[in-house]
Specification:
This protein has helices at 2-10, 17-28, 46-54, 69-77, 117-131, 133-142, 160-172, and strands at residues 61-66, 79-81, 88-90, 150-155. With 173 residues, it is mainly α. The strands form 2 sheets. A two-stranded parallel ribbon has the order 1-4. The longest helix has 15 residues, at 117-131. The protein is globular. The two termini are 36 Å apart.
């Protein structure tokens, strides 16, 4: 199934919800997930979320980390990467010693295609069209009773350690 999904993505296609759900079900059935796992960025649509529910995949907790679009654009579009090593810099938050140059090799840094502002804004538009509706979906689910997932929203503009501690506290509760 994974090879099939990879081939579809490499061809620029969208992997069907059924295939994605089956991949997730297969993966979370492995021994390292017996005590739970984190699904990051999945599900992305209400049909995917409903398919998870219909497949009896139990979700204990849904966490939304909220960051305004302009902040997301600033964070992502400021990234620069050394292609050979994967080292990542940021023009404001973690700049290299010499602008545009890798600290270790002295080679030029690049801005990945998916870190360009237009690409980021396109992805955000897709998020608002398809994924943001999941917030209401899971908020409604959280009201359904004992088997429903907990839902928490966190301010992602805070420091990483603050957000991490808030999430860990919510998961323990």
């Amino acid at each position: 199934m994974a090879k099939k999904a990879k081939d579809i993505m490499n061809a620029g296609g969208l992997v069907s919800d059924d295939l994605i759900i089956n991949l997730v079900k297969e993966r979370i059935a492995k021994p390292d997930c017996v005590n739970g796992c984190i699904l990051d960025g999945f599900p992305r649509t209400i049909p995917q979320a409903q398919a998870l529910a219909d497949a009896d995949v139990a979700i204990d907790h849904v966490i939304e980390i909220s960051v305004p679009d302009d902040e997301i654009v600033s964070r992502l579009s400021g990234r620069r990467q050394h292609p050979g090593s994967g080292r990542v810099y940021h023009v404001d938050h973690n700049p290299p010693k010499v602008e545009g140059i890798d600290d270790v090799t002295g080679e030029a840094l690049i801005q990945r295609e998916d870190d360009q502002e237009a690409t980021i804004r396109d992805r955000l538009s897709t998020y608002h069209e398809q994924t943001s509706a999941l917030v209401g979906f899971y908020q409604d689910k959280a009201k359904e009773g004992d088997d429903a997932p907990n839902y928490d929203k966190f301010d992602g503009t805070q420091g990483i350690d603050d957000v991490k501690q808030q999430i860990l506290s919510a998961l323990k509760g």
